[in-house]
Each structure stands twice: as C-alpha cells, then as structure tokens.
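Annotated sample (chain length 132).
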Amino acid sequence: MLKVIAVAAAIAATTTVAGAQGTTYKTTAKPATQASTTAKPHKRAKKAESQAALQREAKISEADARATALKEVPNGSVKSEELEREKGKLIYSYDITVPGKSGIDEVNINAIDGTVVAKQHETPKSEKKAKK
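Output written by the structure step:
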C-alpha cells in the first residue's frame, strides 16, 4: 500500500510541476492551414438588384426611353434592351441595328431624367469582346 501512495504522490508532483511550467500535453488549438495564412481580404459582395426593384426606381418609362434611343439612331431597330445600374446610374441600354451597317449602336438612356448618357458604335469584333 505504501508503494501505491508513493506512486500517486510522484504522479501528483509531476503534474503540479508541469502545470506550474505551463506545459500542456493536450491542446484544443487547430493547426494553421495554408488557406488561413494566405487569406485574401474580404470583399463585399454586390447584391443583385431585381428587375422589379429597378423598374420601381425608374422615373422614365421604357417606351419613352426607347423612343429617345431610336431618335439617336435613324432607321434603326432595337435588337435588345436592358434596364441596369452601370457606374452607379440607372440606365436603359439599347442595342440598335441599322440596315446596311455592320455591328450595333449602343445607346444608354438615363432612367431617371431621360437624357442620353452614352452612344457608341460596336463592330462585330468589339461586340464579341464585350460579351466576354
């Protein structure tokens, strides 16, 4: 029995000394991973706006914006249209084709005040590049 008490005292003394030295034998900390050491800064994801929300915000009707865009491109017909936010501005974007002319004319109309924001001609080559 004396041997058992002596062994228990030796174990208790070792544990006390190890605890006093701050040594721990089992850790709950997880090792660093490659991903956590090379983490990129957090970027705020842009929230996609629904078409319904954009339409509620627009002050100019799509029909009025279309008429303004077609005035900019005589003899043109609308190939596609889109209501979008570009560089912070709410715009109607029209791709207009003209018979006998290659490429498209892109006309952007401000959806708040109806002014022409931009007009540019896109060749078939530049149009493919813009889609990418």
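Annotation: Residues 45 and 56 are 23 Å apart (CA to CA).
Annotation: Helices lie at 2-21, 34-37, 51-57, 62-72, 124-131.
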